[in-house]
Amino acid sequence: MEEKSMKFDPLPEGCIALILSRTTPIDTCNLSLVSTEFYSASKSDVSFQLDKKSGKKCYMLGARALSIAWGDTHCYWEWTNMPDSRFFEVAKLKIVCWLEIRGVLNTNALSPNTHYVAYFVFKMINSYGFNICLVELSIDIFGDQISNKNVCLNLNAEEEPDYDFEEEEIMDLRERMQGLQLPNVRSDGWLEIEIENFFNSGLEDKEVLMSVMEIKIGHSKKGLIIEGIEVRPKDAN
């Protein structure tokens, strides 16, 4: 009897990406080795899935889909693979003074009549400089800024400053960092911090601009690893 093989090429890449999003990073790698369609989808810069609870769309822009200042300058950023990432590449910060990360998503990619929350998803490995700087998170929808706030990306914000400061300067730094929003640990081991929530009526197709920036203090920073920016329904797990 002639064996019949399953053909995946008629499926749109978004559908294959959805299948891969339900697997582990290791499974994704294995599937990519045996299927050109899975390989192509695994290298996609975005990830799409449905929230199990509500059935509404969740969307994630991978690091390659973001605009990262000097992101292609090797002395500042490195593009590498991590086995626990859903994306083929993540961005690893070598060192910068000017941190500027932006992501753009059209509202027609999301479910209508839904409150969404945008999250910056990242890790810190041998980081430096993030316990003394306020990182600014903001969301603009069609040119109208609906949120702007300062946060601390260092989960251990009470660590001693990385730089040599006078005692008075250290006290001032700690006062500025006190009470700032800190990241949470996700079930997949990455960190996430809420950028802001917004409502998608679905009546108009608008651009949502999400920004992660530190351009005011000007101190050196390193050790940030960017997976991407995830947008999911407000009541999603």
Task: Name its key features.
disordered N terminus; Jelly Rolls; 2 domains; alpha+beta; 5-stranded antiparallel beta sheet; 8-stranded antiparallel beta sheet; F-box_dom; single chain; globular; 237 residues
Please provide a written account of the structure.
This protein is about 15% helix and about 40% strand. It is α+β, with helices and mostly antiparallel strands and about 240 residues long. It has 2 domains: about 1-45; about 50-235, Sandwich (Jelly Rolls). The strands form 2 sheets. Strands 1, 2, 4, 5, 7, 10, 11 and 13 form an 8-stranded antiparallel sheet that branches. Strands 3-6-12-8-9 form a 5-stranded antiparallel sheet, with no helix packed on it. α1 (about 15-20) packs across α3 and α2 packs across α3 (about 35-40). Mean pLDDT is about 85; it is low at about 1-5 and about 35-40.
Percent helix range: 10-25%
Strand residue content: 35-45%
Shape designation: globular
CATH architecture of the largest domain: Sandwich
Please report the total strand number as a whole number.
Answer: 13
Would you identify the CATH H-level superfamily of the largest domain? Galactose-binding domain-like
Count of runs of 4 or more consecutive helical residues:
4
CATH topology of the largest domain: Jelly Rolls
Q: What is the CA-CA span between the terminal residues?
A: 47 Å
Order of helices and strands: HHHEEEEEEEEEHEEEE
> For the report, how would you describe the main beta sheet?
8 strands, antiparallel
Please give the radius of gyration in angstroms: 19 Å
Q: Strand pairing plus helix content: what structural class?
A: alpha+beta
Residue stretches low in confidence (pLDDT < 50, at least 5 long) are 1-6, 37-42
Number of domains: 2
CATH class of the largest domain: Mainly Beta
